[in-house]
Amino acid sequence: MSFKCKTLAASIVLALAAPLSAQAADSAELAQIREQIKQMKESYEIRIQSLEKRLQQAESTAGSALDKAGKADEKAVHAAAAPAAMPSTSASAFNPEVSLILSGTYANLSQDPVNYRIGGFLPNGGEIGPGQRGFSLGESELVVAANIDPYLRGQFTLAVTPEDTVAVEEAFVQSLGLGSGFTLKAGRFYSGVGYLNEQHAHTWDFVDAPLAYQAFFGGQFKDDGVQLKWLAPTDIFVELGGEVGRGSSFPASDHAKNGFGSATLFAHLGGDVGASHSWRAGLSLLRTSPQGRAYDDVDSTGAGVTNSFSGDSRLEIADLVWKWSPDGNPVYTNFKLQGEYFRRHEDGDLTYDVNTANITDRYASAQSGWYLQGVYQFMPRWRVGLRRDQLDGGSVDYASNNAALGQAAYNPSKNSLMFDYSPSEFSRFRLQFAQDKSRPEATDNQMFLQYQMSLGAHGAHKY
Amino acid sequence: MKLAKPMKWLASGLLASLSAPAFAALNILACEPEWGALAQELGGDKVSVYTATNALQDPHRVEAKPSLMARARGADMLACTGAELEVGWLPILLRQTGNPKIQPGQPGYFEAAHYVRMLEIPVRLDRAEGDVHPGGNPHIQTDPRNIALVADALAKRLAEIDAANAEYYRQRHIQFAARWKTAIANWEKLAAPLKGIPVVVQHKGFPYLENWLGLKQVAALEPKPGVEPSTAYLSGMLGQLQRQPAKMVIRAAYNDARASEWLTERAKVPAVALPFTVGGSERAKDLFGLFDDTVQRLLDALK
Asked: What sign does the CA torsion over B134, B136, B139, B145 have?
């Protein structure tokens, strides 16, 4: 290269000098030099052109290869695809979306959580109460999801508890584009009843679930079964749905027979009011027929007993969520008001102390509860929230077992105040204070510090 | 039977809305106002466009609201940016509505970002870099040449979905393309003084505009997409701006004014709020108004 450059430079100098010595120079020699320069010029031009062409090709190949990544869904780009760039990604290109939720809590509780109970409500064996004192890891959730084929999508959520047990939280397949507004889901999933029920714990606005969820569902209601939903072809949002399932969790009891052990029906209505407001309201029914739903309790003598209920359980829920943000842009400030009302009737037979006394008689209860919460983002990343929980012990009749199990009527309640800070869409730190009057005998003053992190695929969140 | 009356109302309402689509035009759900406006330009009275977001909303941060679910249910076609701009809400709409016409891969699923050359494709995909988009910067609508490219593709797609009106769409596209070409030439002529002008951006949302007009971005108020600046970063930036002054600080209509006003105060750099999309300002009533106003506001700040 350097030699050629020197020759070129020399020829240019020569060429420039040439006119000065034109008379002296032999015209034939001059013509020769000119010819040489011309040839050199042409050869360089050709080489530059070919280099430019190669550079352009490389650029466009790289460009379309990058464009291709993650855009395999449209035909249009197929023609422009650079096949050379594909093999490197083909082995992993169909890997599902993976995301991981990490959370942890520090809790300061004035009452020992071992004694936690919701006074006046049957213990349900669910994940209730404020959790452990001190530092504790929350549930780590691994979510793997992907379209299975053009017709179905699958999602798997694995929850690893701090006690190192692993649970399949959700595992379902869902139809894609069934048409006419229908969606079918099968597997294990959170039921569509209520508002908060379908939402995973990491999307909640408070550390814990509302008292009503804890008392009536033992946390959240999920089941193994099928769900059918239908969205009406209207401009206002009208959604109807129903589920039948095994009845594997409270308020059902595992249904080891053909048929189903739980059934739900729900209707949702929603829309916008101007650009700044949006809302959704719903009514839900959950009907189960628990058979031998066993639970541990303490009787009037203070002895630990195991009781069992068989009969009918009917739960009705009304829910409303209202969201506001200026011009519909929630980035700077926004407000969310959310409330749900629960009412449950249970009728059937209750066996007191199945292991020794074993006395069976009628049992009937009518109980209710609600919560109302408001969460206000007063500046980007910072939110404050207030929640009021109230349960109504209502009427509980144990018939002849009243002497052994009957309790004074009690209406548990709880007030919670939370602040949270989200450095980004994927991380959140929360401070929560609560005054928990779940126990008739004492008020539990609670303080929580919590972090929640979301790693991996950008999950879209439900309304 | 107290329920009878409301039930009748509900039933007649449902029936009315069920029968409506039979006479209606092609229902298009546009994710952003620019694609809604473009679909209207090309589709004329053969289409009925519903725009999911307005110019004052950050399209990253919209929710899968009930109203959007209802609209997605009845849509014949989606017109969206793609490149993961709508990743936080569109997948929910697609999954929950079960509308087969608008699922990815169907003709009714239109992503504008496929038809333009993407800029700022990240070399490092790591959330430590902020809210980066693997496909490149999704704010492609700030370059009118991109609008022209998307118009070509969208017109073809409309003709494919609604073959009966293919010729109508083709004619409207020819007219639009010609008007647009003239308009671009005019904007470029007007905007000539903007070439090489150093600017500060509030959010990294303008690479296509900068690329088109030759604006030179010297700093961004957001160090990384979606990441709030630290005071150290801002004071560093002020120092940098003293050495290398910028002529203006630009932001989108949906951005909070405070950050750019802070810079205006400290560094005496005029703040410019650009409409960013159709509806982002009084003048940006349609796509033509959008660029008339964008160019005008930039020129005004230069004076």
From this structure: negative
